[in-house]
Amino acid sequence: MADSKNILSEVKEGILYLTVNRETKLNALNFATLEEFRDIFNEVSDNKDIRAVIITGSGEKAFIAGADISEIAELNELNARKFAENGQEIFSLIENCPKPVIAVINGFALGGGCELAMACHMRIATDSAKFGQPEVNLGIIPGYGGTQRLTYLVGRGKALELMMTGDMIGAEEAKNLGLVNHVLATKAEALEKAEEILRKIMSKAPLAIGMIVDCVNAVFNTEENGYQTEANSFARCVKSGDYKEGTSAFLEKRKPVFKGE
Ligand code: COA
Fold first, then answer.
1. Deepest in the core among 95, 194, 203, 215, taking most CB within 10 A?
2. Does position 2 have pLDDT exceeding 70, yes or no?
């Protein structure tokens, strides 16, 4: 994994840990950090040493407190569209990653931080996490996919309320709304929970895991017939060695050993 200036990365037992490391700015996402995410996720798909990803923020106060407002303040109409499209493209790379990606959310997940968390496959928060889309306070709207992903995660009425008021909500409420999968007391416990889930996923057939991501994402792509994607992916699974291994292991009453082939 190439060195990044704003994101610390470390691979341990197949899990890539990414920590946004701008603690003094509450890990705000500037352009450089976003581009580092692009480079990292372009590499993750093909890197055999990486089988899962955890994204978190450095320090105890924030996951990511939004896009960097000092950069937002310099936008004009032309580059604002590019700004949004660029962020959307990078977050799509995360959402479509064929390996599981979990956000471990400590503290503030606001604006682009909440949007990045929503692009991950799952979200695990600490008790003190706070979620919100406060862009309206700056005279703008979410631009990194938040209007879309928040709506499909929590439903239209609540998404409109959160985006129109800019209100923050706590971790328990976020869990009740379906925005968060699990809430734990501390960051260490949240990381442990993420690792436990990822270890379970890593014991399954990797090609099948990637195809589940494709099929679930197809639900939200109006240009794609998700049932067709599912049938095609199902057929691709049956061509794999892992399919032979999984079914044989069951019939031979032993544990399967998957190779991702
Ligand atoms: N962009 C750039 N810098 C940010 C930032 C952001 N999104 N969020 C926080 N920071 C910076 C602050 O400017 C401050 O920097 P400084 O010490 O150089 O002045 C530092 O991070 C600490 O933030 P501060 O506001 O002093 O902390 P706080 O505890 O008083 O408040 C928040 C925390 C999260 C409520 C507050 O920082 C905030 O509202 N941030 C912006 C959230 C937002 O609107 N995000 C969406 C952006 S589109």
1. 194
2. no
Q: Are 93 and 38 in contact (CB under 8 A)?
A: yes
Quick check: 197 pLDDT over 80?
yes
In order, the DSSP letters of 42-97 are HHHTT-TT--EEEEEESSSSEEE--B-HHHHTT--HHHHHHHHHHHHHHHHHHHT-
115, 161, 223, 224: which is the annotated catalytic residue? Answer: 115
Look at residue 60 and tell me whether its pLDDT is greater than 80.
yes
pTM flag (> 0.85): yes
pLDDT tens, position by position, 228-246: 999 999 999 999 999 999 9
CA of 67 to the centre of ligand 1 (A): 10
What pLDDT score was predicted for residue 4?
A: 84
**Alpha-carbon span 148 to 86, nearest angstrom:** 16
Distance 172 CA to ligand 1 centre (A): 23
| Catalytic annotation present for 35 | no
| Atom 34 in ligand 1: residue holding the nearest Cα | 65
Output the CA 124–ligand 1 centroid distance in Å: 22
Instruction: Indicate if 224 belongs to the active site.
Output: no
Cα 67 from Cα 30, distance rounded (Å): 6
- 40, 67 contact by CB (below 8 A): no
C-beta atoms surrounding 256 within 10 Å:
17
Catalytic residue among 36, 95, 135, 195: 135
Which is it for strands 122-126 and 101-105: parallel, antiparallel or unpaired?
parallel
pLDDT mean across residues, the chain: 97
